[in-house]
Amino acid sequence: HYSFFPGRPRWPDHRRDLTYAFAPENGLTDEVKGVFTRAFARWAAVTPLTFTAVESFRAADIRIGFYAGDHGDGEPFDGVLGTLAHAFSPPSGHFHLDGDESWVVTGDLRSAPVTAIDLESVAVHEIGHLLGLGHSSVEESIMFPTITSRTRKVDLAVDDVTGIQELY
Ligand code: TQI
Ligand code: ZN
Ligand code: ZN
User: Fold this and answer.
1) Which residues line ligand 1 (CB under 6 A)?
2) 20 near 28, Cβ under 8 Å?
3) Phi-psi region of 72 (alpha: psi -120 to 50; beta: other; left: phi over 0)
């Protein structure tokens, strides 16, 4: 079953059209950016929320960046595997991914390194957190707190949709 963060934080009614931007220093390719666009679209399809990419990192509601190790927010990343990414509850908008992971953007996961992690799967999960969902006890849920390397899980389960629709 889905859960919310303590105090049930969410983006307020007057902030339904959210913007996102990528840390300029990451110099991400359009292919990588497209993974996030697809991940946002999965949540937009089941909520009144919209997500629009903007150029200004400073001005964006949701700020996405890849960082290795200590990156200044008191929650350092830990190298390969372990913590893969973290996102903070609304209305923080901080979405950080561990730059030391072997992120898989496209192609065959089976031929990827054993430690490879599917980027879109993690993005869909972290966006759930950014919107106010905690973890779920339902194994099929995107918000279930386990991910296996070289596995792709990107479709929202009924439990995810029920949870997010209770919030928005
Ligand atoms: N990052 C944790 C996560 O996103 C960070 C975290 C731990 C957390 N406890 C939390 C975030 C409580 C919000 C609330 O869950 S992670 C998974 C999953 C991670 C884990 O790197 O461990 C995914 C990132 F669900 F598979 F465990 C992505 Cl999909
Ligand atoms: Zn961080
Ligand atoms: Zn999580």
Assistant:
1) 83-86, 121-122, 125-126, 129, 134, 145-147
2) no
3) left
How far apart, in whole angstroms, are the C-alpha atoms of residue 79 and residue 84? 9
Q: What is the ipTM of this complex?
A: 0.94
pLDDT tens digits, residue range 25-41? 999 999 999 999 999 99
Q: How far apart are CA 71 and CA 45, in angstroms?
A: 33
Q: pLDDT digits over 63-109, tens only?
A: 999 999 999 999 999 999 999 999 999 999 999 999 999 999 987 88
**Cβ(165)–Cβ(81) below 8 Å:** no
Domains and CATH numbers, the chain: 17-167 (3.40.390.10)
Angle between helices 158-167 and 119-131 in degrees, nearest 10:
30
Q: Mind telling me the catalytic residues?
A: 126
